[in-house]
Amino acid sequence: MDAASDAATIIQIAQATQQVLNAGLVYAKRYTNAEKSCKLLQYDLRCVLATANIAIDALTRCSSLGKDPNIDDRLIQWFSSDEPKKCLDMLRGMEGLITGRNRTQGVLARIRFAGWVEDKIKDAITLFDKHRAYFHFLLSADIWNDIKDVKERQEVAECILNRVDEENKEIQEAVQTVATEIAEDRDERKKEFDRDQVTSFLQWLDGLDCTIKHEATHSLRQPDTCTWLPKTEKYQSWRGGGNPFLWLGGKAGSGKSVLASAVIDDLQRGKIDEEVLAYFYCDFRIERSVNAHEVLRSLLAQLLRLAPIDGVDCRDAVPDLVQRKEKGASPPNDINLLIPLVLSAAKLHRLPVIVVDALDECRDVEKLLDALKQLNDGHIWLFVTSRPE
């Protein structure tokens, strides 16, 4: 094993950990209701940072892990696994969750996303907890048989954080400095972003494209028709940040799909800053469009494809799905697997909006209804059409 290469990896992990801590501090200063979440975020990451620094010290003193008797065998095993890379990817994903720009406009938008920053920090904590197993080595202080040293390093890290807090009287300047560093690091990672891999991943996911169906439905609409719906109180309330779920019912042949196409066009024309739209048409004449799993896979693919390339690979939101592809498996058809994947992909966006037309034409409509209920989490805005029954 190359100790220099492994040292470079652990240095990247330490740097990524510090960037997550810095991002949390910046947002905690901007939003006082995020302070509690920030403290929870720091708890484990300080230990990770301290232990990573110990690993760096050990690795810089040897030329080969396998030949140095002072290096713990468990460290060798850890670097032989894929966990260091997973740790680094996870930390970058956490930073991406915290450092997203908030450009929502208008009073209603501000009300709608009150507390959103704290939620982002909580999302980062949830992501960390979900994949805590990747960090088991870095969270095990006794791995070095030197608990005292780990404790001292944690105290040093805590003193640094406290000093930053005490000396941060000129908060605007400090925020700008950290924000610049984060932006520079994001730009560097953006250069490394492999668009071809993402394209290959989305092709593998094979989400049904409803563009042609939308264009065909749009062509059925007569000029100056369907203009009444966006003017209704319920629709305007939905667009203005009221109830996140809007259902349009109607008998067969009453023009629900044409109205749905009008809603899609209205959403595309009047997009709020950072709003994204994913849509699906259920149609009994199209075999693939009448299965609940096809609906969810299509929405998942659209939300991933629409993710902004701001330094965070959209695939980071669905690591289990990436592993599935790498193992040579087919994309999932299990509704219970797809629902959390769609929710994770939606969190890549500030304002995700989903339109699903003709639920009643879906063969397993009960499964689709249950899935939409779970997607109605307050973050995703939903518009659906179906027959009254």
Question: How would the blueprint of this fold be written?
Answer:
Layout: H1 3-30, H2 35-59, H3 73-80, H4 83-98, H5 107-112, H6 116-130, H7 147-166, H8 171-192, H9 195-205, H10 211-219, H11 233-239, E1 245-249, H12 256-269, E2 275-281, H13 292-305, H14 319-326, H15 335-346, E3 351-357, H16 365-375, E4 381-386
Parallel strand pairs: 1-4, 2-3, 3-4
Helix pairs in contact: 1-2, 1-4, 1-8, 2-6, 2-7, 4-6, 10-12, 13-15, 13-16, 15-16
Low-confidence stretches: 101-118, 144-148
Instruction: State the CATH class of the largest domain.
Output: Alpha Beta
Q: How are strands sequenced across the largest beta sheet?
A: 1-4-3-2
Mean pLDDT: 79
Query: What CATH architecture of the largest domain would you give?
Result: 3-Layer(aba) Sandwich
Number of helices: 16
Q: Count the domains.
A: 2
Helix and strand succession?
HHHHHHHHHHHEHEHHHEHE
What is the CATH T-level topology of the largest domain?
A: Rossmann fold
